[in-house]
Structures are given as structure tokens and as C-alpha cells.
């Protein structure tokens, strides 16, 4: 059986990571979304083990101490993390696991799980990036400037990634990521039984 892999998609705010990942999952039913663990309370309609793994602070801290997360962060009074066991179990089953995450989280994962595949999503221009952030209408002028400044800093880390994809048109960006997935799926290192497969299909 072919081994799967963890696909990381990250990039600055405003590049469209959420939209791209949502459409990627819609178009590719064989991709598994990585479920994060969190200490925040479930919102209406959220289901444990589907939207998040909801755990309390004590359990989360124990998991940190036991090295059970590929990455974790403390955000707005709550912990969030990527459970190592869930990802590795899915990968061992041959699944492609998709994780949308910020640059800091991606760098943690690269340190703890370097065999993941890292994709950096870029805007066509920085001017367009700022336009997208402004059009969202959810941030104050101060927030917009901060996000824009952070975007410039995050660009310094593109070299830590395996691939980059420019999100000018969402259809093209998704197709580019699908091409990366196809290429990674036929890497020799993910297949330990290539010879046996060929022989079983009419060889000696």
C-alpha cells in the first residue's frame, strides 16, 4: 500500500488560503482534513472529532509534555494544536492529509515532521494582497496595516517550503496544488512495493 503524506498550505493573510483549501477538499473527496485539538468550548453545531478535538487545559498541557502535537500555539486565551497521532495514522493508511496553517505553525511542523509537503500560497502582487484584506471589511485600518507588514515578514520564509503557488485565479491555484499532489503521490519513497505491483500485473 502506498504511504500518504501531510500537505501543508500556508501563506500571508489575504492570500485566500481558506477558500483554496475548502475548494480543494470539495473537488478531491479522497483528501482528509487535519482535525486540530483545542481547549476552547464548542460553538453551536460543532462536533467533537469532526470540527475539532475538544479537550480541557490539563489534557492539552499533558499532551504538550508528552510530545503529542506536531505544532501548537496559544491564541486568544485558548490552546490549539495538530495531533501527531491523527496525522500519522491517516498517512500510514495511505491518506493525503490537508492542513491549512500559518507560517509559524508550518515551521514548527517542519522541525517535528519534515517529511510533510509544504506549499506556500502567494498573492499575484502585494498591492492585490492589501486590496483583498481591505475588501474583507473585517479589520480596522490598524489591523490591515499590521497584517500587511506581517505579510512582508512572512515572505522571508518562502525558502523553507517545497513549492509555491500564486493565487491570482482560484481555479488555477487549485489546479497547481492538485498537480503537486499528483507528483508527490508517485514519488518512489512512498511506494515500497512497486516491483511486486508490476509483476502481479503480468510479469514473470
SSE layout:
Layout: E1 5-10, H1 17-27, E2 31-33, E3 37-38, E4 53-54, H2 57-65, E5 69-75, E6 78-83, H3 84-92, E7 96-100, H4 103-112, E8 117-122, H5 126-136, H6 141-154, E9 163-166, H7 170-185, H8 194-200
Parallel strand pairs: 1-7, 1-8, 2-7, 3-4, 8-9
Antiparallel strand pairs: 3-6, 5-6
Helix pairs in contact: 1-7, 5-6
Keywords:
43% helix, globular, Rossmann fold, 20% strand, alpha/beta, 204 residues
- How many β strands by DSSP? 9
Tell me the structural class: alpha/beta
End-to-end separation: 21 Å
CATH level-four homologous superfamily name: P-loop containing nucleotide triphosphate hydrolases
Helical element count?
8
Can you tell me the number of structural domains? 1
Rg over C-alpha atoms, rounded to the nearest angstrom: 19 Å
Summarize the structure.
This protein has helices at 17-27, 57-65, 84-92, 103-112, 126-136, 141-154, 170-185, 194-200, and strands at residues 5-10, 31-33, 37-38, 53-54, 69-75, 78-83, 96-100, 117-122, 163-166. With 204 residues, the chain is an alpha/beta fold.
